[in-house]
## 1
Amino acid sequence: MLTMKDIVREGNPVLREVAEEVSLPASAEDKKILQDMLDFVINSQDPELAEKYELRAGVGVAAPQIGISKRMFAVHVTDEQDQLYSMGLFNPRIVSHSIEETHLEGGEGCLSVDRDVPGLVPRYSRITVKGTTLEGEEVSLRLRGLVAIVFQHELDHLNGIMFYDRIEGFKDKLKKELPHLKG
Ligand code: SB7
Ligand code: NI
């Protein structure tokens, strides 16, 4: 069973790597890892289990966050219409997206970031994601709202991107704080 001990934190270079494609059909080992990730996310939202195992509630987790640089993530999140998206995906990719952007009003957080980072994270309002489920089925998902935001957050982890990299003014702020940095 995965717990917070398995979650790597910022500063660990694995979070900055571009993760490798998973070779399909997925091996029994990769399926087991992804199923464990999905169970972890589900458990983290169960108040009793979360307290018992000291889990921080999360709506998703990406493989690099458990130190595995492979393109897979698990989500367990309910949209604004009460539809539950509970799945593990191998090699997920955005095949199209809206021009329009959105953001979560309160900003975002991350299981790999043990601090509050204020600021709005711009995300596409709508995306179409393709990928292969734990069951080996190729799916195409049209997403919007919170679920679209969560999928983009997890996809970013597969490309070494942290949510705060996208906060408006992040680079300007960094330059002000660390003026010796170029670019
Ligand atoms: C806020 C939180 C998340 C996604 C989008 C908005 C996920 C938090 C858990 N994770 O760190 C998963 O990578
Ligand atoms: Ni995260």
## 2
Amino acid sequence: MLERKAMRIMAVRRLLQVAAIALAVLLLWAIFMRGDVGNDAGLPSSPGEELTDGHAPGVRRQDDGIIKVGLTMDTLQEERWIKDQEMFGEAVEALGAEFIVMTADSDDAKQIEQAETLISMGVDILVVVPHDAEATATIVNKAHAAGIKVMSYDRLVRNADVDLYVSFDNERVGELQAEVITKLVPEGKYVFIGGADTDYNAHLVKKGVFNVLQPFIDRGEITVVFDQWTRNWLPANARDNMRAALRANEGRIDAVIAGNDATAGGAIEALAEWGLAGKVPVAGQDAELAAAQRIVAGTQTMTVYKPIRQLAEVAAELAVKMAKGETPRADRLVNNGKIDVPSVLLTPIAVNADNIDETIIADGFHSREEVYKLIER
Ligand code: GAL
């Protein structure tokens, strides 16, 4: 009995000895890895010291020299975002960097959580397509606390110290829409179907639209009889808003400017219910395939084409530069409510049935077969 007990005690003692040795080895390994003197790997010499490569404790950063570019996206709901994700990823990898992307399906809490994950994975630069311009400010603060710079991609994060904003000139998008429509309808009743209120791009586009409309409004030539944002850019919400506008004006609407092609499609659905599709000029944005088909069929007047590959490649190049600690040249400033954010804004292109071949099709954004499929049987 005693013997067995002694045996057990001895076994426990041996076990403890082994565990102690293992712990000692681990400790030694950790000290060795820390390389306490000289710090050539830029690791902290004492707990809490800022890492020379800028990363905070708790951020696992592999010092393998491979740059990690993290992208957090709002959604893949619109056709363009699928292109953005693909083309940006390709461009980042072509520069020899690693690409990690997460999509939040228009859920703010999920986007913040995903950004935290990317930060804890030790990305070298965080690229953000915000769902909600205000709610994502916390992402910028968290990234900066971890020593990671932040780029706003296409959409601007508001009220935060964003390091760089890369997009198309969204105010110019709105101006192009209104310039085309006011040429066709210099007088009459207009409906403005705005984008999502949570998206600062929708506000910039609206500013551009009214830059052009205001003089007509002031002269009493144009009346905006309906002006609503579209929650989450959903076509069904745009359709319902357009139905309300048509009912309120007994179908007497002369022109529609919509935040993008998806919402323009919703508005055209409502116009069709009143037999007005193709009779009332409609403006959109994004050069979606369905919109291109509507333009050659005559139910949509124009769209604004934004060459996504250009945006993706410029953004990838600048993101990798920032990850290397460089400060990219930015020739524009966009105020986000807190700072004038250094910005690179690319040029959007107005497209209608007259120039669709030499723009969208010539660029291979959509093939001629696809665009004319519904009218050339
Ligand atoms: C905007 C973007 C548009 C449009 C919209 C809906 O921010 O600039 O191209 O697609 O989002 O996702």
